[in-house]
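W.,

You were right to be curious about this one. When I first looked at the sequence I had no strong expectations either way, so I just let the prediction run and decided to look at it fresh. Below is the sequence, 297 residues in total, followed by the output.
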Amino acid sequence: MAEHNGSNADAQRPIVQLSPSNVARRSAARWTGIRAETIKLVRSEPFEYCTSSPYPVLILIEQGIRSDGETVIEGAAKSTLRDIGKRLCFVPAGRRLYGWTAPRVLARSIYIEIDHAAPLFDRDLRFSEIEFMPRLFFENRDLWETAFKLKGQIENPVSRAYAESLSVVLVHELIRMNDPAAVPSVHRGGLAGWQQKRLEEYIFDHLSEEVSLIDLARVAQLTPFHFSRAFKQTFGEPPYRYLIHRRIEHAKKLLENPARSISEIAQAVGFADPASFTAAFRRTAGTTPTAYRRAVA
């Protein structure tokens, strides 16, 4: 994952503080513009929680029922809602969310901290200048679906470009939630011929490297948001999926050489280890690299 754009202190700071701290298990991830933590309760006992950040924080509560408790965001009325599962909370930059809960089930949630000044997000949106209202336990289908996909990138990452694409969509959904008129119209056209050619060459030349959405958008001289949509309209699939398909197609050619090991080929086409390469190869080609090699031998 890419480094967060904030300071080292920000990167080390937990997004949410729990007391006692051993009531939950955490997983974390970072990529351009986003830092995220998944929280899974492992003990069914009362605990306190608090999150305070210089960045906006979106909270997705995948599962949560409490027998007692309350939640407060500075500047908003407190909530004592018991069934808080399948709901979202939004904490504006600089605000504090805190509370306590006596859980009836082992809750699962994700905390997503958004660097509003990250280069991934279009400057024209003025995301860092928007005065968001705090929101407790609300529902928003589009925002939920995007945040839930980001949760999957913490547990089973697909690619950096995919995570960054989701981050861009998440920011647009937050802006639209706050003010539907604030989101600019979506670029409807596809890529120009020179953009297609330059992208195809760039992707082929960097198959062994971790390619970000920002890198690809810069090649096409578009903002990440408009680039993602123009790319899909032109190539028929999102950038991250196109990149994986090109890597697997190149891997097939390399597999025809029996002198090259699976580990060497995995590294040559940009996968961190043979296991992730095999999983991606199976999803794309319907078979394993070893079986494919035997079939073409």
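Here's what jumped out at me. Strands lie at 17-19, 24-31, 34-41, 47-52, 57-63, 66-73, 87-91, 96-103, 108-114, 135-138. And, maybe more interesting for your project: Residues 8-181 form a domain with the Jelly Rolls fold (CATH 2.60.120.10).

Coffee later to discuss?

I.
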